TrEMBL record:
One of its GO terms (cellular component) is BORC complex. It comes from Drosophila ananassae. This is Biogenesis of lysosome-related organelles complex 1 subunit 2. Belongs to the BLOC1S2 family. GO terms for molecular function: gamma-tubulin binding; protein homodimerization activity. One of its GO terms (biological process) is autophagosome-lysosome fusion. Residues 1-37 are annotated as: Disordered.
């Protein structure tokens, strides 16, 4: 245990020496050696100029970093406005198509009885055409028979 006491006192002495290096002469202890800046004391003008330049560049950087998302949001807003306009146009087109489809459906319903009559007339014409072909075939056959009978009569008269 006696060996531990001298080492702890050496460690505390080293810590005190380090704290003395980090203490501000006017304001007491500081967090680090970099925070020992005293506002009212005179400083190196070159250091002040470089610090001012650093703060200006930091301000520019932060300003640009904050403006980039702002520009993205503006772009998104304009894209949303364009999309809204497109959807309004598409809605108008869809409404016009709906009206046109309704009108065509009504016209088709009005024409349905007429188309039914046309179909019936077409069926009747088909039947009439078939009857005409049968009548034509029958008249040709009858004509051939009459010619045959006439030839027999004229052939019989010539033989007499």
């Amino acid at each position: 245990m006696d060996a531990e006491k001298p080492s702890t006192s050496v460690a505390s002495a080293a810590a005190q020496d380090q704290n003395v290096l980090l203490d501000s002469p006017q304001h007491g202890p500081t967090l680090s050696s970099a925070s020992s800046f005293e506002a009212l004391t005179r400083h190196d003008p070159n250091l002040s100029r470089l610090a001012t330049k650093m703060f200006q560049k930091t301000e520019d950087y932060i300003t640009h970093e904050l403006n980039a998302p702002l520009e993205d949001y503006k772009l998104l807003e304009e894209m949303n406005k364009a999309t809204i306009a497109k959807y309004k146009d598409m809605r108008q087109i869809a409404e016009n198509l709906n009206v046109s489809t309704s009108e065509l459906s009504l016209k088709f319903q009005q024409l349905a009885p007429l188309m039914q009559q046309i179909d019936e007339i077409s069926d009747t014409v088909d039947k009439l055409e078939a009857a005409a072909y049968k009548l034509d075939a029958y008249s040709i056959a009858l004509e051939n028979r009459v010619k045959c009978v006439l030839q027999r009569k004229s052939g019989g008269q010539a033989a007499q």
